Amino acid sequence: MDIFSNLWLGASTAFMPMNLFYGFIGCLLGTAIGVLPGLGPTATIAMLLPITFGLPPESALIMLAGIFYGAQYGGSTTAILINLPGESSSVVTAIDGYQMARNGRAGAALATAALGSFFAGTVATILLAVAAPPLAAVALNFGPAEYFSLMVLGLVASVALASGSLLKAFAMIVFGLILGTVGTDVESGTPRYVFDIPELYDGLNFVAVSMGIFGICEILRNLESEHERSVGVKRVTGLMLTRQDIKRIIAPVLRGTALGSFLGVLPGGGAMLASFASYAMEKRISPNRAEFGKGAIEGVAAPESANNAGAQTSFIPMLTLGIPGNPVMALMVGAMIIQGITPGPNVISDEPALFWGMIVSMWSGNLMLVILNLPLIGLWVKMLTVPYHLLFPAIIGFCCIGAYSINNSVFDVFVMAGFSVIGFALSKMRFEPAPLLLGFILGPMLEENLRRAMLISQGDPSIFVRSPLSLSLLIFAVVVLALVLSPSISRKREEAFTE
Amino acid sequence: MRQSAGRILRPAGMTFTREYHAMLKIRNSRDFVGGVTMICVGLLFIWFGQELEVGNSFQMGPGYFPTMLSLLLMAIGALIVVQSLMVDAEAGDPETWNWKAYFLVILGPIGFGLALAGLGLAPTMLLLIVGVATASRYANWRHSILLGLFLAACSVLLFTKLLSLPVSAFGPWIPFIGDLF
């Protein structure tokens, strides 16, 4: 079988001592930032991107991926132990997980979260290995029109699945797309919006932009309502699950994995949506639904499997189509570009070691996380005692030097500072920053494909509906939009997000 | 807040203010400002991109895509404004503002950028950390300075020694120590 030789290639890459080491570092860092509220994977990956420039591409991407799914593990630990979700994707885990901890079952909750995540991670990895090559093969036949339609669908869907006002999310996408046009126009060589600043001829640096709107901006928000954390945690005992526990979690884990894997592939989806949706579903169909909110083990198993599955399958569109579905994937695309790899369907055939190595590393990383997390829980909880007034200056320091090291120029530090102001102003007006980053990353690709398609068709926009593939992608985008705008769904959507 | 302020300011019996009020009643001031901001952003990009050749849909010039997007952004902004006049704002948490923190956290990186070449990495880092730490109401000088020294040493070790960034630990503004490194 072809897939086995591919996985073998992946294993030989992922289990190279250096890659194992960077994978381990990624998981460790990911868990740490997952535990710490106020520092998410997006900001961390943006901060660490410059450091990975010197690494080989495999090691760099394996480490960055480790940070992302490691954060899913870390976030649940604090959610269960002290009712403080470290990540948005573990918010629902806190509901029943913390109740379990209060009932003296913290160990069981943590074990459920870890095992559910591991199972989901394994399934999602297999799914990625099986689904990615055929998807990429389809995408290889994509012309500019299909690519354009695909990106439109991606952007529309990412708005539909985001929380908050739709109009505002659209505004952010368009704003991001416009920001993406800053710099030299690839087709004509004309500089756009550069104001005679030489550093701007290459465009705004996305690392600096994302550090500004995610890293620094988050600090500004956190400082508004700063309060000391008091951490009182009892000793965690009894990590073993009883036979009855195992019986109760099997179905929720399977359902969570399935739902999470599906939602992760969708643009705009990923870990957070997956965990919310699977908790809501479980609450409706579980035979023990009366226990929900009072420490039902299903309420931990389902969302924790779902968020890990979603985190992992969100790599599928990024790796096969080169289209990021969430900000973290947008940063991964950026990391690939920096490493000299063109993201898209060619990655699998051009860089098989990188592609399969990453996939296998996700599985080995998940294994590491299970082994790493359960015994080290005491250490992670200790990390919470690091007060925020020591944490945030360090984050700012790292952001500054990280921004500087992108091009060894202080200009990017100023870009970062500027975008922290922009991001903060936008967040005060309740505009979400995530669609902006997606638009910013996709902008140049969208424009290039639009222009190429229109050149091929000699200015006839019907090219987008003449190709059946492009047409069906656009129809799908319209359907998604119509669904979200329809009153009954939008009401449900609001319910889902407030829950 | 806006509405109550309007009520206080409106002198009784002046009909034109009542008409004005009925016509332009902002129900969601945050969205109103947001929509207007988006319109302004669109206008700014059109203004600064007027030199760019727009072309036509067949031969798109460099200005085509940004101009279209700016127009789209203005349209969305207008819709947000309309919505803010028709739909009431949902009751949310009251906004808290911490101007001291904004000021310090945003000026910190700018100061870092300005001072880096002259002071060198170590002193700039120390100043940055101590400076931004004061944004927290729980910060104390001893902790901040210790943290700053620690991070300055770490960043010199990691970035100038290991990753060999082209920035010295101590810059030309600090001649004597700078010569030692």
UniProtKB/TrEMBL annotation, chain A:
Pfam families from the xrefs?
Answer: TctA
- Any stretches that span the bilayer, and where are they? 20-49, 61-82, 118-140, 147-180, 253-279, 315-341, 353-380, 386-406, 463-485
All residue ranges annotated as the DUF112 domain in the record:
20-438
Give the matching InterPro entries: DUF112_TM (IPR002823)
* Keyword set, alphabetical order: Membrane, Transmembrane, Transmembrane helix
Q: Which domain of life is it from?
A: Bacteria
What the entry lists under PANTHER family is as follows: TRICARBOXYLIC TRANSPORT PROTEIN (PTHR35342)
Identification of the protein by name: TctA family transporter
